[in-house]
Every structure is written in structure tokens, then in C-alpha cells.
Amino acid sequence: MENKESQKIEIIMKDYEILKTYSTSTSPGIRYNLISIALATIGIVFSGTMIAVTNGKFSDLVAKIVSILWFVFVPAFCIAILYVWLGEEQRMMRIGEYCKGLESTINEKLGEKVLNWETFKRDKSIKYPEVLIIALFLGLSFGFSLAGLYLIKVHFIMTFIIDLVVHLVIAWGTCIFVRRKIIAIEELK
User: Fold this and answer.
1) pLDDT surpassing 90 at residue 137
2) Beta-carbon count within 10 A of 89 CB
């Protein structure tokens, strides 16, 4: 019986090691690479359009292309990247909760507190980077859509209000998503 218990603990520890390695090295790299690629793409779009503007040959066709890029592509891209990033964040939270459960199982089987990283991390968690990333992508989306609207030369006040309402709805939906899918996992402890 003793041998079977030690085999169970060994299997649980192997599972814990794999998930711990993934959550501390692989997944953060995925999330940061995603943000880096997104910001680089937005920078390329912005640089390309600025080159077109400063070239001096800013025709109506170029203005329409730039305004469509800024009004449609960049905001849609920002929102898509934000939700892909939030999905990765949600995956990390699920892995963390599962590892926390494995920690308590191992600690219970051994009769002492041997593993405690996930519990410690949950108690000392830092939330501001996540909030800043959400604000960054929502802000980029809103800013570029306003710039695109300005270039289209439509009635700016009315379209500004509509754009603001659309982005507030997206921000509200994002808050609901974060509360239900990410923060709710933390509160299960």
C-alpha cells in the first residue's frame, strides 16, 4: 500500500512539474510575444501611413485607404488581439488553479506544507499589468478609430459619440468577460 501511495504522489508531482514549467516559462512567452507582434504590426501600419502622408502625394485614394486602415483594421486587430491575449490569460488562471489543487493534494498526502507557490502567488498577485494591457489595446483601438474618422472628414462630433459608445460597450463586455472568466477562477479559492 505504501508503494501505491508513493506512486500516486510521483504521478501527481510529474503532472505538477509539467504544468508548472508551462505556466512559468512557455505561456508567459506566448502572451508577451502576442503583445509584441501586435504592437509591431500597429507600428508598421502607423509608420506606413505616416510615410504616405509625409511623401506629399496624399491623394483622396490614399486618404481613404489610410482612413479605412485606421478606422477598421487597427481597431478590429486590437480587439482581436486583446481577446486572444485574454484567452491565454484565462488558460493561465485555469492552470494555476489546477496546480493549486495539486499542491493541496500533495501537501495533504505528505502531512505537511511542502508545495505552496500557487497559493502564495494567489495571495500576492499583481493585477495592474493586466489592466494596463487591456487599457492599452482598447485605447489604441479608440484612438485609431477616431483618427480614421477624422481623415474620412465626416461629421466628427456625431461619429465621435458613436465611436465612444461602441468602445464603451466593448470595454464593458471586456470587463464582464474578465469578471466571469478570469477573476471568477481566482475567487473559487
Assistant:
1) yes
2) 18
